Inverse folding.
């Protein structure tokens, strides 16, 4: 039977994380290029879905859900609870995805195929920051699986820092900038949904940062091992989910549609 | 006093009060510093109430102790696996990790809300019994509302309080029954289970507080733009629902993981008790769709607080968008309301007919099919809304389609009775009554599905009759059936049979008169959500009849409460398998031990093989037996 | 065998019950009078629904009750029921047949909707404005009315808009219904077929007095309608002419009864809106935001009528008063003239 835990493709591998990041970065650049040239909704959507698939497979290791039939005989064992916890986490993410899908639906219902005149440089920068944070998050988790606690701590700290950078970039730079150009929360429905989407997303980033800080502190106290680090895995998957949402929000807000 | 304060509920409520005050004062201080008006008609400004309400709800959770263990985990401290040996009555008023206690907590809270919602209905039904305003007049004044406004508040809260009551009632049934039915000692996530229950209490407080903060007039659907003009009370309404949603989402999550991961050995999917299938289908809906009502309400909360014009056409907004988001949840949720109850029918009929459930696999899958199709019909609530014309016909087809899996259930129930050996204890009466009432609800659905007829029926008492039929038939009746049936399992005594039958015979004919009467006047022009109607319409006699019927239904429910009370005092003991059921929980003593089953069991046969010799369903795994690995 | 006897008995009972239920229900007269062309197809489809409802209700209830009687456990009887797990053929049958019925209803329903929506390119267009808590109708000839007069047997295309919140246009005798949205125009086509007076009732909760947002719809013959229109035009033109002169307090009083009386008293007691007694010329009138109007003059009253949210009186709320920006200036000055007379 194919064992997801130890197959070659799924062994903890720092280089794989780097490669995936490079592909994600290139795809983002392609996305931006498409947006500048012909802003094709279809092409941009395809790129976004590709990025999402990569993150879900290599960073969030969604294939581990196939383990749902394992360790059923001993419900009190660590392994059993781990698999149950993982399944529960993914159900939570499924639920949260509905919220963000609703926000996307609202955006297209209210603004159609028009978009706001946002600062594209800023948009690219914060996107890059968040993508990079996912790279370090993956690295942190991989270091934990390889038994390198120090590597885990450093990379988790970097992730949290970049996460803070993202929030600052959106809330303290992008928002005031947009507002100074008339894109305020109360100006019109399109600007209102922009703030609601970025606001709800930033809220999730902040809760993710808090989760990371908790895991960072506990990691520094030596609480996690390669065999038992569920909190790390949970924080990781949640963090990547937050990045996943932005993979769709970024083109929806910055790239798709003609200027209103 | 110290005993009183040791109760989690009390600490939680005190914490909620303090938290609301603190949150409100915080916002008030900021507003004062910013030069904005700090106070308003109801002391705090609206933003202060909203923030205070949220902080209050979170404070409640801290105060009751629902997040204590998670906080310890965050600090890196271990918590011991709680083996709940506490058997005092106090355990019902605080955080318990035992799904049986939580189930009873849910049921109790549901019954409290049922009573409150029912009381509101009796008040406005009394006003409605005659045309003209009798006591809810324009001169009447309460909580800053005149009679007409207070009517709207009562009518609106009746709807939402009943809805929350139903959600808690089904959570009670599901949390209590599913672990014992699948042979588990508890849910997959006991702490999450406790949290899911306790979060509903501050939510209920928020909902009810809307009444004293000016009320609101939109009905339970909370549509803008009217919602934008409502008093502060509507924010408490939105916030209360938003917080209550967490109970649904997390409860659904817990159930799905529990069923996937904690079933007894040999309990493959099609050997689970049928109620578990119903619970899974229900939980898939609550886990996902609930986010949409949270989002819809959140958008209005923020439009009010920050002027974000999501639903203001002049600023590019779209009131119909609210309806799409709202109904994307609110239609599937009606299947949440009825799927567990329909599961109860399927569960109990075999026991009382002594026959297998007819077409078990089809019935099991029909629950999933109803849940799936239920996601595809929402816009049938919006045929007159001004949404895109071309959407109407597709939604008509999808709406009609729900009849197919629902029909599978009805035919199965009837076929299960056929050639049975039927007895009629109280639970069976409620099952049969429920089937007939739900049938009435079901057949009055298609006239709403076809768009042209719906244009006449929409927003009339015909709709009100239809959904009361489906709600009573799909929830209230089976809920009482379940209470009468599993009461002995929970408490080791059985409720009085004669009082049970009295409850049934008081409630059922009255209810049928109520809904048939509603549908009659609805067709003839009685709009819904109106405090008064023209005497010229000739509805006065009907309304008086409806009001009398409502009081009789209430009387039936009071008989039930009386029954619970006297049974607690000196009820007939019932510690064994009094229904002679094959279901796992009845093979163990009543009440169940803390961990449900002293020894695990293995499934060796079909759940509903009544009428077959030597065909056990489960077999206890003795310790000295080798446990074979599949 | 025994099963055959059961089936024959049940079939007879179901058919009987269906018939009795259907006849019983329809003899009650379920629908109000049908007074529009749209009511025809709708009532026809509803009748089909009643037949199906009678049948389905009978089918299940009869077999249910029959089983409860025939298969009940008799006293002293032991043992279980017959061990029947299911019947795949039956399951497929009662899945496919309802599915076919669903599709059939869908086709019939779609066709029915098409009929109901049929558009007459020569329809009479009337603008409908719904507001908290009344209706106003603007006719092509330019005049307004608070009663909807319609000629029989001519399709009217209602172009509807709300001034404030969602409302809904519904006359039970006409059957069809359509919401009114603020900021958008929605349409509804009705062809009244019977002369008479019918209640137009708002069918979407719109606030405190939703129950009372009712107006008469008067359907008359084409001849009578033309006469009414002519009358209205004459009155309208006369009014236009007269109002080109000086503001007139008596015209103002008429406008008061038509538009303002619902909320503003002349007695000195505030109601939904402030009382008009002693209003004109008042000094230092307090506003809700704490500021003060130095003098209640014509300019202030003009603004208060056309843009009421600009200055809100103390004790009242934003959006408490709808805007009357659609009144002509001359009408507003007539009202002000009337207010001046109220010492």
């Amino acid at each position: 039977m194919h064992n997801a835990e130890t197959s070659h493709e799924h062994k903890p591998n720092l280089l794989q994380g780097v490669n995936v990041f490079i592909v994600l970065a290139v795809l983002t650049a392609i996305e931006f290029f498409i947006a500048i040239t012909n802003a094709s909704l279809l092409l941009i959507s395809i790129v976004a879905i590709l990025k999402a698939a990569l993150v879900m497979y290599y960073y969030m290791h969604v294939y581990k859900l196939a383990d749902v039939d394992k360790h059923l005989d001993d419900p009190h064992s660590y392994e059993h609870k781990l698999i149950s916890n993982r399944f529960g986490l993914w159900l939570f993410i499924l639920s949260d995805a509905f919220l963000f899908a609703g926000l996307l639906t609202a955006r297209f219902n209210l603004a159609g195929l028009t978009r706001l005149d946002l600062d594209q440089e800023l948009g690219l920068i914060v996107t890059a920051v968040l993508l990079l944070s996912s790279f370090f998050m993956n690295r942190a988790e991989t270091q934990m699986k390889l038994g390198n606690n120090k590597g885990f701590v450093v990379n988790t700290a970097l992730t949290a820092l970049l996460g803070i950078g993202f929030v600052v970039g959106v809330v303290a730079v992008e928002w005031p900038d947009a507002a100074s150009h008339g894109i305020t929360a109360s100006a019109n429905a399109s600007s209102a949904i922009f703030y609601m989407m970025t606001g709800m997303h930033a809220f999730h980033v902040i809760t993710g940062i808090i989760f990371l800080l908790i895991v960072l502190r506990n990691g520094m106290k030596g609480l996690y091992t390669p065999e038992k680090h569920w909190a790390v895995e949970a924080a990781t998957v949640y963090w990547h989910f937050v990045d996943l949402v932005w993979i769709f929000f970024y083109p929806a807000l910055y790239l798709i549609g003609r200027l209103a | 006093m110290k005993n009183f304060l040791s109760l989690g509920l009390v600490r939680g409520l005190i914490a909620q009060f303090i938290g609301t005050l603190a949150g409100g004062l915080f916002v008030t201080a900021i507003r004062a510093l910013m030069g904005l008006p700090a106070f308003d008609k109801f002391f705090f400004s609206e933003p202060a109430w909203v923030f205070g309400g949220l902080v209050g709800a979170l404070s409640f959770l801290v105060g009751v102790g629902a997040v204590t263990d998670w906080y310890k985990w965050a600090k890196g401290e271990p918590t011991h696996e709680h083996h709940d040996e506490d058997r005092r009555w106090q355990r019902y008023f605080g955080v318990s990790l035992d799904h049986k206690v939580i189930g009873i907590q849910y049921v109790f809270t549901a019954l409290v809300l049922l009573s409150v919602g029912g009381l509101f209905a009796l008040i406005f039904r009394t006003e409605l019994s005659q045309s003209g305003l009798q006591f809810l007049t324009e001169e009447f004044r309460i909580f800053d509302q005149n009679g007409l406004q207070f009517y709207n508040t009562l009518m609106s809260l009746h709807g939402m309080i009943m809805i929350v009551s139903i959600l808690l009632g089904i959570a009670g049934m599901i949390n209590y029954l599913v672990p014992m039915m699948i042979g588990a000692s508890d849910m997959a996530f006991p702490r999450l289970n406790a949290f899911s229950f306790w979060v509903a209490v501050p939510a209920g407080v928020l909902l009810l507080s809307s009444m004293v903060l000016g009320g609101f007039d939109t009905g339970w659907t909370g549509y803008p733009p009217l919602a934008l003009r409502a008093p502060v009370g509507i924010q408490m309404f939105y916030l209360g629902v938003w917080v209550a949603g967490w109970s649904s989402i997390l409860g659904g999550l817990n159930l799905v993981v529990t069923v996937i991961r904690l079933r007894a050995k040999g309990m493959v999917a099609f050997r689970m008790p049928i109620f578990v299938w119903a619970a899974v289908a229900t939980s898939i809906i609550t886990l996902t769709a609930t986010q949409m009502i949270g989002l819809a309400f959140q958008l209005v909360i923020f439009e009010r607080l920050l002027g974000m014009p999501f639903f203001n056409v002049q600023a590019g907004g779209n009131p119909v968008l609210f309806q799409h988001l709202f109904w994307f949840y609110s239609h599937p949720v009606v299947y949440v309301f009825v799927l567990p109850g329909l599961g109860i029918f399927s569960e109990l009929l075999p026991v009382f007919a002594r026959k297998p459930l007819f077409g078990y696999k089809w019935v099991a899958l029909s629950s999933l099919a109803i849940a799936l199709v239920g996601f595809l019909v929402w816009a049938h609530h919006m045929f007159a809304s001004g949404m895109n014309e071309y959407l109407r016909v597709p939604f008509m087809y999808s709406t009609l389609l729900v009849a197919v899996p629902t029909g599978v259930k009805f035919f199965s129930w009837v076929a299960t009775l056929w050639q049975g050996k039927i007895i009629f204890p109280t639970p069976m009466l409620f099952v049969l009554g429920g089937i007939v009432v739900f049938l009435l609800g079901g057949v009055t659905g298609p006239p709403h599905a076809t768009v042209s007829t719906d244009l006449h029926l929409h927003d009339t008492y015909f709709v009100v009759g239809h959904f009361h039929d489906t709600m009573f038939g799909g929830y209230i009746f089976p809920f009482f059936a379940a209470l009468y049936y599993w009461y002995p399992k929970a408490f080791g005594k059985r409720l009085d049979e004669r009082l049970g039958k009295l409850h049934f015979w008081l409630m059922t004919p009255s209810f049928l008169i109520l809904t048939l009467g509603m549908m009659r006047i609805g067709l003839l022009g009685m709009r819904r959500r109106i405090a008064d109607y023209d005497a010229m319409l000739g509805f006065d006699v009907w309304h008086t009849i409806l009001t009398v019927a409502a009081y009789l239904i209430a009387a039936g429910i009071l008989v039930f409460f009386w029954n619970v009370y006297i049974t607690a005092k000196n009820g007939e003991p019932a510690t064994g398998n009094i229904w002679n059921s094959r279901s796992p929980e009845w093979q163990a003593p009543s009440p169940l031990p803390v961990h449900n089953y002293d020894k695990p069991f293995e499934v060796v046969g079909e759940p509903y093989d009544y009428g077959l010799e030597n065909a056990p369903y489960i077999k206890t795994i003795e310790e000295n037996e080798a446990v074979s690995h599949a | 065998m025994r099963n055959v006897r059961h089936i024959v008995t049940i079939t007879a009972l179901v058919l009987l019950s269906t018939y009795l239920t259907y006849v019983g229900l329809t003899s009650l007269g379920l629908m109000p009078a049908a007074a529009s062309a749209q009511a025809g197809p709708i009532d026809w489809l509803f009748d089909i629904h009643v037949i199906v409802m009678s049948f389905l209700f009978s089918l299940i209830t009869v077999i249910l009750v029959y089983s409860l009687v025939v298969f009940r456990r008799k006293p002293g009887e032991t043992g279980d029921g017959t061990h029947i797990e299911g019947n795949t053929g039956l399951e497929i049958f009662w899945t496919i047949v309802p599915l076919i019925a669903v599709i059939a209803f869908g086709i019939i329903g779609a066709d029915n909707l098409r009929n109901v929506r049929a558009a007459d390119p020569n329809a009479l267009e009337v603008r409908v404005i719904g507001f908290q808590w009344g209706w106003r109708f603007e006719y092509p000839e330019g005049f307004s009315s608070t009663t909807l007069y319609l000629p029989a047997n001519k399709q009217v295309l209602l172009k509807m808009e709300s001034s404030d919140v969602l409302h809904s246009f519904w006359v039970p005798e006409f059957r069809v219904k359509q919401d009114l949205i603020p900021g958008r125009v929605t349409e509804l086509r009705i062809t009244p077929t019977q002369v008479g007076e019918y209640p137009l009732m708002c069918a979407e909760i719109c606030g405190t007095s939703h129950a009372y947002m009712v107006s008469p719809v008067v359907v008359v013959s084409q001849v009578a309608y033309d006469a009414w229109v002519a009358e209205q035009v004459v009155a309208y033109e006369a009014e236009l002419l007269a109002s080109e002169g000086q503001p007139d307090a008596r015209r103002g009083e008429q406008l008061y009864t038509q538009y303002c009386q619902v909320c503003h008293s002349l007695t000195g007691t505030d109601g939904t809106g402030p009382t008009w007694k002693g209003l004109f010329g008042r000094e230092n009138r307090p506003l809700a935001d704490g500021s003060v109007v130095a003098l209640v003059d014509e300019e202030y009253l003009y603004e208060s009528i056309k843009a009421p949210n600009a200055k809100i009186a103390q004790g009242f709320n934003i959006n408490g008063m709808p805007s009357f920006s659609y009144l002509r200036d001359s009408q507003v000055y007539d009202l002000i003239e009337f207010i001046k007379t109220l010492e």
User: Anything to note?
Assistant: Chain A has a mean pLDDT of 94.
